[in-house]
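Subject: for your reference before the review

Hello V.,

The reviewers asked for a structural picture of the protein, and I figured it would be easier to keep everything in one thread rather than splitting it across files. Below is the amino acid sequence we used in the manuscript, unchanged from the supplementary table.
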Amino acid sequence: MAFPKPFYKWRPHPWHGLEPGPDPPELVTAYIEVTPFDTVKYEVDKVTGYLRVDRPQRTSARPPNLYGFIPRTYCGRRCAELSPTSERGDGDPLDICVISERAINHANILLDARVVGGLQMIDGGEADDKIIAVLAKDNLMGEARDISDIPAVIIERLTHYLETYKMQPGSDSGVRIEKVYGAEHAFKVVKATIDDYDEEYGS
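And here is what came back from the structure prediction:
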């Protein structure tokens, strides 16, 4: 029996064992950690590659879109240089928020996502950009090529969620959104984090 190529005999690590996408920086792979149905924040365990419970959400807010990261990206020096008010990159893979018409209620999945823009987010002084993308071949949003093609209310909901989901009673969230940017800048961010990954871990 001949196995298909490429064939992984063992489960690859979602961050280190997968490619960043079919045609990055425009068409990327997204590994999904959290769905709009989740009231618990999940994050991939950096050692094992399995999903780990990070924390139950304290507030009633839920993420408005699918949320995850692009494999083999790293928010390091180059990423921080594209975020002028940050002190450094956050040292994590590049986060991605994926918009789709149909409800997807499973995490721990892969999908092809078309990059249309992003949010320049600073969290505790660190660059923590959120790439905004649409599900490739989505029946409603699949033709979008830039943030201007996305209804403004969707971006408003995402921005509000990210600015408030870490808030604790009587304290500031420590998060701020510096700007919303379009596809051209988003491509630079994706490319920078791929290069940062290669520098940190090797190509």
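For the response letter, the relevant points are probably these. The mean pLDDT is 92. DSSP finds three helices and ten strands in the chain.

Happy to draft the paragraph if you're swamped.

O.
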